[in-house]
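## retry 2 of 3
previous attempt timed out at serialization; input unchanged, resubmitting
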Amino acid sequence: MNNLTIIYYINNFNENLFESLDSLINQTDKNFELLIIADGIETIKEKSIEKLNLNEKLSNFKFIVINNFNSHSASFELARKYVQTKYVYFADRSNIFDQNFVKCFNEFILNNKNEEYDLLFLTVGKDVANYPDLKKLKLCEFKKNIYLQILGKMVNKIINVDFIKQNNISFIPFKHYTTHFSYELVSFAKKIAILPDVKILCKSAKFSIFNCYDLVYQCNQILNHKDDEFYKTNKTQIEYIMIRMVLYSFLKCIYIDDKFNKTKNLGRAIDYAKHWCDKKIPNWKKNKTLLAKDNLDDKTIINYLQHIIFMPFYIKHFMNKNK
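## retry succeeded, writing output
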């Protein structure tokens, strides 16, 4: 019996999709199951199967077509019902799998067959910023760094299916982001492991998706846990994650399109994000993780968050200064 199901959600074609699926087809160990949820585009099934010969190259492959435009969170939730393996990985079209991804995972499971892990953390390639080489990190150090655990969202996690069911952890329907789901995974997990040889590259997309309402909604869901012991113990790091999420999303837009800076919507959105931080996380600029000298985050991001001024001229100056 296979140990791992890899789930894709696809609602359109992009430049990385076939490269990502091809990296799975070329795995040295094909003892895994692949489940693709195609939402809203009937031709995805025909084109992807025809071009990659998935039925011929992968024996454990399922393709489910829905036409509800559910968003990937709702589709992931639907896909969970079809998972029959012990572990699941929620993939993205930007994921390029190391050819020994499955092989190293299966070897780890075999060598630890008497252990029951809730979460397994992967090594993420350098195309994604701020992920350290996990080979250099001891498990105790990693467990203390809640920022690294949560910020990876689904990219850096293989999840025990029974663990999800037992703790009633679910995706929020019709939301793009999966941050609250990731938060609950980390907060409930009792036993985790680092898999330094299970590697994945996450290629940067040309166009980032950002939705201020969605981000704030995710953060508000996390704030519902503020009386929990996990939140209290890791308050500084958790609040830093929310500060970074709500404010930094707009920095990505600044880098992507200079014309976007000239619209009124950007200023309004940033102002809204600032007011949310002021209301929900008073004195957020004094957050210790934001000020820490050994912060693992990008220094450009830290500078932006520390000194942000919500004026168009400052945004343009910041963008030019940090190109």
